[in-house]
Specification:
- This protein has helices at about 25-35, 65-75, 100-105, 120-130, 145-160, 180-190, 220-225, 250-255, 260, 285-290, 295-324; strands spanning about 55-60, 80-85, 110-115, 135-140, 170, 195-200, 215, 230, 270.
- By secondary structure, the chain is α/β, with parallel strands linked by helices.
- The strands form 2 sheets. The chain has a 5-stranded parallel sheet with strand order 7-6-5-8-9.
- Helix 1 (about 25-35) packs across helix 5 (about 145-160), helix 1 packs across helix 11 (about 295-324) and helix 5 packs across helix 6 (about 180-190).
- The chain binds aspartic acid (ASP).
- Aspartic acid binds near residues 140, 146, 180, 234 and 275.
Length: about 325
């Protein structure tokens, strides 16, 4: 058997499991497509029939607000049928394996699976077992990756900063347990961000050697100094032993982004956060709701990016079919 690839024989996206190894051209193509789905505030959202006849099923075994809602809206706005499996109400709780669940939905002609799972490798495992015309899109894999988040973060920076090469981007907080940070690292590396910083207490920074090329800072002040982009992260309590979870008050005192601290960044810096935010822990409300915050734009971009990814994998599927 060939080693797993998320690309088809022509090198086109078949599944989206990771941004690792993606070229800047591949990323740019997805961002361009996403941009075409953005509308001015107040205008009705973009719609098309690109996914007419396609069924998109989502299976989330970890909580989600933004990713789940935006995948669903993206699929609906492209004309797809959408199914969200309520995992607590599904036969998984009766002991059905993930593959049996997938095969069941595949038998109902689900063409695209959107999967979030707390376990490493589940998305790839499913992708290896589905029928050739079916695609698997990761909606977040353990601490490892969250590819559509990485893309929407890149799109947001592109919108506000116009490019990547001259930027100082600081990713701040619990980088160690964050799939958002890992996908950000991958996409920013592909797009050749000027300077990428990872900033946090030592216990929350990744192992030395992980994220080569990123500069490590164990001081918030030094880490965000003159930054163009400050991306704040939530403490991933669910991935930590109880004893090592920092006290929220202590953490806020040292690592919380306040308006005063933000003054260290460039005057026109943008502040990002993937959500959910823990206000007054990693980010003060005055910053989250302040003039530098682009957090809501990230959410808007999430729908556009997911539309772009859905359209891309279905377009590639149709191209493969057309040749047969
Ligand atoms: N929503 C993001 C994720 O699923 C970030 C977070 O949960 O902190 O990884």
């Amino acid at each position: 058997m060939l080693p797993f690839s998320q690309y088809d024989a022509d090198g086109r996206l078949h599944h989206l499991i990771t941004l690792e190894g993606m070229s800047s051209a591949q990323v740019r193509e997805l961002l361009d497509r996403a941009q075409a789905h953005l509308r001015r505030p107040g205008e009705p959202p973009a719609r098309s029939r690109a996914l007419e006849g396609v069924s998109v099923g989502s299976i989330f075994t970890e909580p989600s607000t933004r990713t789940r809602a935006s995948f669903e809206l993206a699929a609906r706005r492209l004309g797809a049928d959408v199914l969200n499996l309520e995992i607590q109400l599904s036969s998984r709780v009766k002991g059905e394996t993930v593959l049996d669940t997938i095969y069941t939905l595949q038998a109902m002609a689900v063409d695209v699976f959107v999967i979030r799972d707390a376990e490493v490798g589940v998305c790839q495992y499913v992708a290896e077992h589905v029928q050739p015309h079916v695609s698997v899109l990761s909606a977040g894999e353990a601490h490892v990756s969250h590819p559509t988040q990485g893309l929407l973060d890149a799109l947001t920076i592109l919108q506000f900063k116009g490019g990547f090469r001259d930027l100082v981007v600081a990713v701040v907080g619990d980088v160690r347990h964050s799939r958002v940070a890992r996908s950000a690292y991958e996409v920013f590396t592909a797009l050749e961000v000027g300077e990428l910083r990872i900033v946090g207490p030592r216990a929350l920074l990744p192992e030395a050697g992980e994220m080569p090329g990123a500069r490590r800072f164990e001081s918030l002040e030094a880490g965000i100094l003159h930054a163009d982009v400050v991306m704040m992260l939530r403490i991933q309590r669910e991935r930590m032993a109880e004893a090592s979870i920092p006290d929220p008050h202590d953490y806020c005192a040292r690592w919380g982004l306040t308006a005063k601290r933000l003054k260290l960044a460039r005057p026109e810096a943008i502040v990002m956060h993937p959500g959910p935010m823990n206000r007054e822990v990693e980010i003060a409300s005055e910053v989250a709701d302040g003039p530098h915050s682009v957090i809501r734009q990230q959410v808007t971009n999430g729908v556009a990016v997911r539309m772009a990814v859905l359209e891309t994998v279905i377009g590639n599927r149709d191209r493969r079919r057309g040749r047969r």
